[in-house]
Amino acid sequence: MSTATPETPEPSPRYALEIRGLRKTYAPRGGEAGKEALKGVDLSIPRGSIYGLLGPNGAGKSTLINILAGLVNKTAGTVRIWGFDQDANPRMSRASIGVVPQELHLDPFFTPREAMEIQAGLYGVPPAGRRTEALLRALGLGDKMHVGARSLSGGMKRRLLIGKALAHSPPVLILDEPTAGVDIDLRRQLWDYVRELNEGGVTVILTTHYLEEAEEMCDRIAIINHGEVIADEPKSALMGRLDSKTVTIIPATPLDRLPQTLADRSDVSTILTPAGAVAITYSRNHASLGALLDLVISAGIEIRDVTTAEPSLEGVFLDLIHRDEA
Ligand code: ADP
Ligand code: MG
After folding, report:
1. Is 8 inside any structural domain?
2. 217 and 248 share one domain
3. In terms of domains, do 113 and 201 share one?
4. Count: domains in the chain
């Protein structure tokens, strides 16, 4: 697939996106205080990746995406898209990305075909260079080209928005929560299509609050929380963290110190809680709960209760924030 518009000189940047010191403070409105949604974000997104921007609701993901899309004005910082500075070279930077917004806004009066053609026209793609029908077919909308947008289901609207974002063949595609509210079959289809685009050379950035989605799709993941990037690493490294689990063993009598056999284990991290319980954080790939319990029992501790915390995105956040503050 061709990934550049005819008038894009196509530099070969190392990074599809380079974001430095990005800040956004929303002005106060209707009695609410101003909101600092981004607090100095730095991100370098390598060309060719499928990059996940993961974070809970309200973390600032859409704010970031909307700044890239030119829909929200940044308060401070620099953004380079495909090597083009957003302020110094707005036309080129805009031509280099396609953005699929979180909201399913479509003009109800146009058919998918018309919507695609208008979009291509807006970006100055000459009729001969347009891929309207091929894109609609690739997105499974081949039989919906001429229906009113009003009659499209949510999933179809999402796909049409992806088509619109690709109408000018940008080298960078950004998807904001692409599968929120999308059923499992369609989710799979979308993932397949996104992967196909990526194999064709498109750098993909997607935001999600589904860990599973990031895990399945992305080769690199940044975690954003309260407007700050708290992790930015290859998926394998992040998943390594998720592999850890914490078990809290409550003894019949509170302990005043850790048994030596536990304290000596270097493959697990053991602490004595203020309540005199033993909290062991271990990698599920490298230690079993049974073996850890045996260790505690053989240290002469009578176990009253055991609680475990499942690893979760929330857990990774807490873990990372905790590390930040340590
Ligand atoms: P996410 O996409 O990660 O859920 P958002 O970027 O939408 O997060 O929101 C980040 C924070 O900024 C939230 O606290 C949100 O309420 C606030 N926010 C988003 N848009 C606006 C706006 N237009 N005006 C004021 N505050 C906003
Ligand atoms: Mg959002």
Report:
1. no
2. no
3. yes
4. 2
**Is 296 found in the same domain as 183?**
no
Beta strands 172-176; 203-208: pairing state = parallel
Q: Are residues 155 and 191 in the same domain?
A: yes
Please tell me the distance between residue 209's alpha carbon and the centre of ligand 2 in angstroms.
Answer: 9
138 and 58 in one domain?
Answer: yes
Q: Which residue range forms the structural domain that includes residue 263?
A: 244-310
Give me 54's structure tokens. Answer: 């993961």
Ligand 1 atom nearest to 66, measured from its CA: 6
The pTM for the full model equals 0.78
Relative to beta strand 15-26, strand 35-46 is: antiparallel
The b-or-e profile of 60-98 (16+ CB within 10 A means b, else e) is bbbbbbbbbbeebebeebebbbbbbebeebeebbbbbbb
Which pLDDT tens digit goes with each residue over 252-280?
Answer: 999 999 988 888 887 788 889 989 999 98
Sign (positive/negative) of CA torsion 135, 192, 216, 102?
positive
The CA 102 to ligand 2 mean position distance, Å, reads 6
